[in-house]
Amino acid sequence: MSKPVQKVVLAYSGGLDTSIILKWLQEHYQCEVVAFCADLGQGEELEPARQKAMNLGVREIYIDDLKEEFVRDFVFPMYRANALYEGVYHLGTSIARPLIAKRQIEIATQCGAEAVSHGATGKGNDQVRFELAYYALRPGIQVIAPWREWDLTSREKLLAYADANGIPVARDKRGDVPYSMDRNLLHLSFEGKVLEDPWKEPEEEMFVLSVSPERAPDKPTYVEISFEKGDPVAIDGERLSPANLLARLNALGGANGIGRVDLVENRYVGMKSRGVYETPGGTILGVAHRAMESLTLDREAAHLKDELGPRYASLVYNGYWFSPERLMLQSLVDASQTYVTGVVRLKLYKGNVIVTGRKSEQSLFDPVVATFEDDHGAYDQADASGFIKLNALRMRIAALVRQGKP
Amino acid sequence: MSKPVQKVVLAYSGGLDTSIILKWLQEHYQCEVVAFCADLGQGEELEPARQKAMNLGVREIYIDDLKEEFVRDFVFPMYRANALYEGVYHLGTSIARPLIAKRQIEIATQCGAEAVSHGATGKGNDQVRFELAYYALRPGIQVIAPWREWDLTSREKLLAYADANGIPVARDKRGDVPYSMDRNLLHLSFEGKVLEDPWKEPEEEMFVLSVSPERAPDKPTYVEISFEKGDPVAIDGERLSPANLLARLNALGGANGIGRVDLVENRYVGMKSRGVYETPGGTILGVAHRAMESLTLDREAAHLKDELGPRYASLVYNGYWFSPERLMLQSLVDASQTYVTGVVRLKLYKGNVIVTGRKSEQSLFDPVVATFEDDHGAYDQADASGFIKLNALRMRIAALVRQGKP
Amino acid sequence: MSKPVQKVVLAYSGGLDTSIILKWLQEHYQCEVVAFCADLGQGEELEPARQKAMNLGVREIYIDDLKEEFVRDFVFPMYRANALYEGVYHLGTSIARPLIAKRQIEIATQCGAEAVSHGATGKGNDQVRFELAYYALRPGIQVIAPWREWDLTSREKLLAYADANGIPVARDKRGDVPYSMDRNLLHLSFEGKVLEDPWKEPEEEMFVLSVSPERAPDKPTYVEISFEKGDPVAIDGERLSPANLLARLNALGGANGIGRVDLVENRYVGMKSRGVYETPGGTILGVAHRAMESLTLDREAAHLKDELGPRYASLVYNGYWFSPERLMLQSLVDASQTYVTGVVRLKLYKGNVIVTGRKSEQSLFDPVVATFEDDHGAYDQADASGFIKLNALRMRIAALVRQGKP
Amino acid sequence: MSKPVQKVVLAYSGGLDTSIILKWLQEHYQCEVVAFCADLGQGEELEPARQKAMNLGVREIYIDDLKEEFVRDFVFPMYRANALYEGVYHLGTSIARPLIAKRQIEIATQCGAEAVSHGATGKGNDQVRFELAYYALRPGIQVIAPWREWDLTSREKLLAYADANGIPVARDKRGDVPYSMDRNLLHLSFEGKVLEDPWKEPEEEMFVLSVSPERAPDKPTYVEISFEKGDPVAIDGERLSPANLLARLNALGGANGIGRVDLVENRYVGMKSRGVYETPGGTILGVAHRAMESLTLDREAAHLKDELGPRYASLVYNGYWFSPERLMLQSLVDASQTYVTGVVRLKLYKGNVIVTGRKSEQSLFDPVVATFEDDHGAYDQADASGFIKLNALRMRIAALVRQGKP
């Protein structure tokens, strides 16, 4: 056990694990537990969580709707960077943790708690993300990570503890323990159970946010997304708030079988794990943003972003949202987005997100220069000769020397 | 006109443009033209090209089947690097040019020609790719790029010249001039015509290598690809030569509506252009290779590759295949592939390439460590506490100083 | 000859080359030449240039003191990035060109000129730097680069032209033609003559801004430089304007034999060349800035800067000051400098710049944590165990698999 | 205490700390301790260490001369990469640790030990370097890090323990405790004591390997270093083995006041610390290698190395010598060194290492192309025009659009 604690703010979901933790904290630390539920669009009523917490004797309960802040200040900045972890993962869990941690620290300061706690295990990335954020924002905070402390080291012990303390246990439709899941407005993730064998295909019944491509409509859906300075602002001409816009994209993507990813990924704590994700709206947004940039962003600006994108993604994945290096990269990214404004048209069809058009008043596509037809002198083809000759010069000199005829 | 020339080796396709060039070289330079046709799997008989060249008075004609060399020594090394230009383009044209140039230089040396020529225009990337390769391999070579020299500056003038010289002109099905296309075993590209408006969707009739997702079968196709040291070697257990393997993947991809990309891209010569690509087999291969790596490649090795991938792709796109920096990056990439060996199972369905399994004797996925269940001590969760604390330390110290409580 | 021109603004130094160019422009283009002399601290009176230009019939002459703008808006931002080209060159010429070009374009717009001209040769980097800046700032500008147009292709022809037009020719002390030199408040560069043999040591008499280390004082000079947000603001406690501060550092460095660099460098146009540079003040500033950062900058911020520094330097060297990618990198760099505030103490001695102390209220050096003595719990050494174990985990798993004992 | 142990191999220096550790391991673990002394050129007789170990009851003692392996397989590969940590530190300690660890693991396997131990503290980088290497080479090894386990948490307790166990305690000349030092053929490092205040200048008496610049000879020393494929092979024409060559450079550098660095650096474990280093020979070697590359290495190869150099340096600093990512970078670096062959002439003078000449049969410096004089057509200045125009094109188009005149 760590140092004694008077009051701790727990990131509480109302689910089994954090209910057990809540009880365990009360018992083990003999401290007052403040419950904090963040509404990030996980698609559940949070009022039942309030009741559960009250039943467990909690007196201070915070239930905060953070959906707009989440999308505006976390999801959209990340999409400006075209961040994908290991090429495909949209970072749906990773990007939510810093916001929960930030609000949790605010509450701790407000209600005079000297500690915070979370329900992430000692094997995963989330503990890192929560705690790096806690420490960056309030360096003297005390952190309690029950999974790394307690002796409830198997599912059996956990369930026994729940039973003994009157904490209800959910089962899935078949009565099995559920997958390890995390859901918010950006995504839903699955880990564990059959997924622990990377050779096995996930079962169709597992998915929640999307139909399979096979069950998606036989007719494509066309959609137009408008961007301003790198952020989406409207769908089919209708302006929407960030959270509403992402929700709309989720509905569109989910209905068309879009956004599933099945990945063996590398955790920051050093092991590989297998995750399956549904990111219907985010997948659409990612394709659309790249298409908007393809028309409006300078070549070297785009390439610089592409080279730094994997690093930005790793920082988010590893929990360094509040680090100086993430902020530096964000400054670089944001400096590129001034003219990323216009409209992208997409065709959504059975898992595919197909770009079918992009237009912008800031378009750098110059049809007169680009045409295969006569351009009336807009581009002097003879310039290419000097361009090539000088770019080749270093290789020519080297070849002359290496071939022994200097 | 450049310096006088006795003999020039022309990269000849048998098509309209290079036929005009062949004639123009004979007339303009009063030189002997050697015709070289490379078979890179463009899917056409090349014997008719021989006849056309003979009709134009050519005495030395080289028709070389380079398909195996193309896939083994150019395509596969590039896929080891997971190279995609601007996030999506599979570099199908870019990767073919260095091989054509290399063989062309060999022929020039063999047959005593002091010059080489190609049919690429002065606005595009291909002129750069051809010529950088020429100069790198034979620094004293003379290069003739007719598009940058002649006065046939409009399609009308070209067609008039063809008519005047008895060169037949192909039309597409509707009698229109065709798209500007390039095809080989890796891909088919389209530019020009309606595509010059990036807001317009391509017409379905344009496509050649693939059916549309809509017209693809309603039943998915499962396929297993085996890898050895980063290269694919077998499909569904059947070992195939590189070119045969890629051809098989093309058939699978094309039948399932896979591999179309519609892109506004940034050319090396400084302008944006719009291209549409079909890369059915390459798209499957790219997904499969990443999946194989996800299981067998170390995390930091994978991330280093991800950070350098865009640069590798730009080098290939810009024509620097034979540059020292591409060779250095290839060394780095190849050093990572020793254990990228195993099998990936994919589901192909209406445009989707879905990873459904991966296995390997070199798998770094350790189910005992990764499990959410009891791991019997394989991983000590308490270790995570120190890991996080030390990773947070620099941010904590900074926060203490910045918040004024050092 | 390019298109006809009515009025051209020439970057004019008063020296031989630009005097010949001035005359040649008048003769060759039959146009009015506006002379623009930028005072960047080259250490010469510019009024004689005014007289020379008037003698050559120029009616509009601009002589602008740009020293403060040069140091504040060009030199200092570059030093924030710790930019050194190829490890050692302080970019003294490169960083001046964009400012000259910017002012030249302003003057052209102001006085109604449709063209600009400069005295850089067709082999060097300066032509690129001038012209990329011209085009970025006024894309329709006409550029006249006489060195690439005229037939004065040897020094003899140039001197004959000068004689024929009454343009005075300077000789060095020994009556030789001088080195090719460029001087401003940041540096003085030398190229040509004996330096064209990279095995030969430069002659001591060549140097201007600095004594040799051998002739520098036998006693060291101590100096303290104060920084605010990454920029130097005071020397030995005395606040100085940017230009005055750099001039003071030049005096200190020059007197102590500091800042000579002898380099074979890679030009952007594809060849290697040998340059010798004197950058007395800049060398001191570079060392001081790094030392200030060593105390106040986060580790990952510093490392990110180090990785991007060579690219930033190449952009400046190659003339891309006004490019979006340089601006993006500047945003990243500037975002790191908020707390780079404090004092660095240096010892200057016979060519050496030795850091002997650094202090800051923003210091991240925490003596309590860092001490080898008892730290009373500020740092828990046991944390290191978990830190190492998890960082090693991926390599351990790999070793187990590779060694065949999974 | 960790798990029980029968036999442990200790990296033993014969000094106070590892003598205490030796005793403590025997007492605390009741195990047999095997002593391993690596001779990496620390400049001390190691036979006394044998005697000390015997006096402490050790029966198996390994004293290995690893100097040639150290320089050939560790130091030289690192210098091929021009690796400097945080711009200035030559990584003298970092590069030695992997070799010690490698040999220690070999001995453990040979003599049937199940554990290894070292004398690095829980605050520093060396524990990480040792242990990452141990785990990478023998993933099941048990590691005992006494500093993280025992209760000897202050210098007083340590000295008391030494006294109680008859272990002699060294004092410096003044009877003070010495600096924390690490010495090998590449360098000598100092930490602790007065250095813990970064504002204080080190005392002159502290230094061992070098005289101060002030006390160095008034006459410069010229030296020529020959390279083959990136590695130094001869000094002033005399071929020397790697270790002998580095020793010779140390003598030259030390006599001329070369190679001192005073740095506030960022440790991998999260804190800043202040270190002072003497690297006389390595400093000369680093300058010489860069100069050799400046003449023989392609521009883009050199720039790619410069961009990746900081990352390579961090990997070595952080202890990842045996990681796949270091090996990948080494492959990239080594692929660039094929032609880095020739001679560099240096002038050593009172702390300065001045390049005064470089020559090579593989020189890419082409005086005909580079000359300011007439080059008789080797380079066509008109080529530069097209080169600039196409490089400017993307910025021109952007300026036209942004300025509203497309």
TrEMBL record, chains A, B, C, D:
<feature type="binding site">
    <location>
        <begin position="11"/>
        <end position="19"/>
    </location>
    <ligand>
        <name>ATP</name>
    </ligand>
</feature>
<feature type="binding site">
    <location>
        <position position="277"/>
    </location>
    <ligand>
        <name>L-citrulline</name>
    </ligand>
</feature>
<feature type="binding site">
    <location>
        <position position="125"/>
    </location>
    <ligand>
        <name>L-aspartate</name>
    </ligand>
</feature>
<feature type="binding site">
    <location>
        <position position="129"/>
    </location>
    <ligand>
        <name>L-citrulline</name>
    </ligand>
</feature>
<dbReference type="GO" id="GO:0004055">
    <property type="term" value="F:argininosuccinate synthase activity"/>
</dbReference>
<feature type="binding site">
    <location>
        <position position="121"/>
    </location>
    <ligand>
        <name>L-aspartate</name>
    </ligand>
</feature>
<keyword id="KW-0436">Ligase</keyword>
<protein>
    <recommendedName>
        <fullName>Argininosuccinate synthase</fullName>
        <ecNumber>6.3.4.5</ecNumber>
    </recommendedName>
</protein>
<keyword id="KW-0028">Amino-acid biosynthesis</keyword>
<keyword id="KW-0067">ATP-binding</keyword>
<dbReference type="InterPro" id="IPR048268">
    <property type="entry name" value="Arginosuc_syn_C"/>
</dbReference>
<feature type="binding site">
    <location>
        <position position="89"/>
    </location>
    <ligand>
        <name>L-citrulline</name>
    </ligand>
</feature>
<comment type="subunit">
    <text>Homotetramer.</text>
</comment>
<comment type="similarity">
    <text>Belongs to the argininosuccinate synthase family. Type 1 subfamily.</text>
</comment>
<comment type="pathway">
    <text>Amino-acid biosynthesis; L-arginine biosynthesis; L-arginine from L-ornithine and carbamoyl phosphate: step 2/3.</text>
</comment>
<feature type="binding site">
    <location>
        <position position="119"/>
    </location>
    <ligand>
        <name>ATP</name>
    </ligand>
</feature>
<feature type="binding site">
    <location>
        <position position="38"/>
    </location>
    <ligand>
        <name>ATP</name>
    </ligand>
</feature>
<feature type="domain" description="Arginosuccinate synthase C-terminal">
    <location>
        <begin position="179"/>
        <end position="397"/>
    </location>
</feature>
<feature type="binding site">
    <location>
        <position position="126"/>
    </location>
    <ligand>
        <name>L-aspartate</name>
    </ligand>
</feature>
<feature type="binding site">
    <location>
        <position position="125"/>
    </location>
    <ligand>
        <name>L-citrulline</name>
    </ligand>
</feature>
<keyword id="KW-0055">Arginine biosynthesis</keyword>
<dbReference type="InterPro" id="IPR023434">
    <property type="entry name" value="Arginosuc_synth_type_1_subfam"/>
</dbReference>
<dbReference type="InterPro" id="IPR048267">
    <property type="entry name" value="Arginosuc_syn_N"/>
</dbReference>
<feature type="binding site">
    <location>
        <position position="189"/>
    </location>
    <ligand>
        <name>L-citrulline</name>
    </ligand>
</feature>
<dbReference type="Pfam" id="PF20979">
    <property type="entry name" value="Arginosuc_syn_C"/>
</dbReference>
<dbReference type="Pfam" id="PF00764">
    <property type="entry name" value="Arginosuc_synth"/>
</dbReference>
<dbReference type="InterPro" id="IPR014729">
    <property type="entry name" value="Rossmann-like_a/b/a_fold"/>
</dbReference>
<dbReference type="InterPro" id="IPR001518">
    <property type="entry name" value="Arginosuc_synth"/>
</dbReference>
<feature type="binding site">
    <location>
        <position position="265"/>
    </location>
    <ligand>
        <name>L-citrulline</name>
    </ligand>
</feature>
<keyword id="KW-0963">Cytoplasm</keyword>
<feature type="domain" description="Arginosuccinate synthase-like N-terminal">
    <location>
        <begin position="7"/>
        <end position="168"/>
    </location>
</feature>
<feature type="binding site">
    <location>
        <position position="180"/>
    </location>
    <ligand>
        <name>L-citrulline</name>
    </ligand>
</feature>
<keyword id="KW-0547">Nucleotide-binding</keyword>
<dbReference type="InterPro" id="IPR024074">
    <property type="entry name" value="AS_cat/multimer_dom_body"/>
</dbReference>
<dbReference type="InterPro" id="IPR018223">
    <property type="entry name" value="Arginosuc_synth_CS"/>
</dbReference>
<feature type="binding site">
    <location>
        <position position="94"/>
    </location>
    <ligand>
        <name>L-citrulline</name>
    </ligand>
</feature>
